[in-house]
Design brief:
homodimer, disordered N terminus, alpha/beta, elongated, 10 helices
């Protein structure tokens, strides 16, 4: 067990080389915590990340090193359960954590003695490096001493370290899907519409920024503006008519407007 | 007609005292362009705005001054057509503009000789003062000289002055409903969900900010992350189960996830 003084000495294996693993690996590296090995099923992803952070890599679970202190598993949630047995086999003494919002900590039970969760709530893309400094990071473990270790590691990355049990984490993840993925889809639909009318998406950026800034001060419910909250039927009818060629977006427009009206009236 | 040199001398009447009129009135004032009068059907709104910007006010259309150079009409879109005849009567020589994204310029035809549109594309709330400096402002007029005047006035407020005809403006407004109003509703749903689980909405702010920042660099379509784009059916099923008590949001979750999947796959 590592003390709080020497997290640089923890040897870490990163299992996964996707968006989250890439950003986490780089952020750890910047803090002097260098993962020793990267595993990914996809050789290109494994090699790319390993090269950047100065680690070795493998595409075979049986070649994952057995001497690490901590295994951070950042895989697609669907893929995780099937991989747990081959991953943990012969590595049962180490600390195992996953990074998924919606996977309960108990997924490790029966496969590892020491386990937990290390969930940074943020949207990660390989093409964009994220500053971890103020990302909320939620940790959980089946032992107090490992929880302390995970908190220390998290605190090296961000000022926002919180404990959250699996139920709370699942709720956070659901809320995050609305605030991030669904929000980004609203941007994406706008981008498609503007392309159709030969207008640049960039025109939307000041509006996007203000919409985000505004909810730092006002509750989103009070911050709402636009035709749906005013129940401006003529404007809404005009917009629905413009979406006649896009029944899916027309349906979204109708349902979102109704939902805004329900919540704000 | 005012030349480009002395916009401070234009006498302006603000028709409306809502979110947009309030922010626009204050912004004009800060630039030394002080509206002389505010009209609103609601006395409290009229008086509040008039006091802040040092103008007189009225709640009666027949008492709106007849000697202004420019009338800026910032009313709910639904209310505009019915008010145009009493507003313009006896004031037909002045320049009339409205501020609505979805109302065509031709709404003025037959009521005023000189008219146009002055559309700042932003989300305005009375409780939050907005910096106009980088807000895209779209102008249109039926005469070249009035278009020049509106551009000069707009340029006093923001660096982002564009001409847009009524069709383009309507498209911009539709896209703005997606990027702003529907996005804000995603924040609002998240807030409600987190309240239910006794978790603070503030935990979402770093994610909201990064989601907005990200599309300054990446196309929203490429920026997408999360269970829907990965088509992580187990996570989506878990989230849908959590929304069982909220059929409206459950339906939104399902449709938005499908729409993400269609756009990104």
């Amino acid at each position: 067990m590592m003390s709080q003084q020497n997290i640089e000495e923890i040897s870490i294996v990163l299992v996964g080389a996707g968006n989250l693993a890439t950003n986490l690996g780089k952020a750890l590296c910047r803090k002097g915590v260098r993962p020793i090995q990267v595993y990914s099923r996809t050789e290109e992803s494994a090699q790319t990340l390993a090269d950047v952070i100065g680690a070795s890599y493998t595409t075979r679970t049986d070649q994952i090193r057995k001497d690490a202190d901590l295994y951070i598993v950042a895989l697609k949630d669907d893929a995780l359960p099937a991989l747990i047995p081959p991953l943990t086999e012969g590595r049962g003494d180490a600390l195992w954590v996953h990074t998924a919002g919606s996977v309960p900590m108990q997924v490790w039970q029966g496969h590892a003695a020491r386990y937990g969760v290390f969930y940074p709530m943020q949207t990660f893309s390989k093409r964009r490096e994220v500053d971890f400094g103020n990302i909320p990071l939620f940790v959980e473990s089946n032992s107090e001493s490992d929880l302390a270790l995970l908190k220390t590691l998290a605190a090296a990355l961000t000022t926002q370290v919180h404990e959250a049990d699996s139920e709370q984490r699942k709720s956070l993840h659901l809320a995050a899907v609305f605030t991030c993925n669904f929000t980004n889809h609203m941007y994406a639909v706008a981008e498609q519409l503007l392309q159709k009318y030969h207008l640049p998406f960039e025109a939307m950026l000041p509006l996007i920024d203000e919409t985000a800034r505004k909810v730092h001060e006002l509750s989103p419910r009070l911050a709402q503006t636009g035709p749906a909250v005013r129940y401006d039927e003529q404007v809404m009818a005009g917009h629905l008519a413009m979406l006649a060629d896009e029944p899916e977006w027309q349906q979204l427009y109708r349902q979102l407007s109704e939902s805004i009206h329900h919540l704000t009236s």
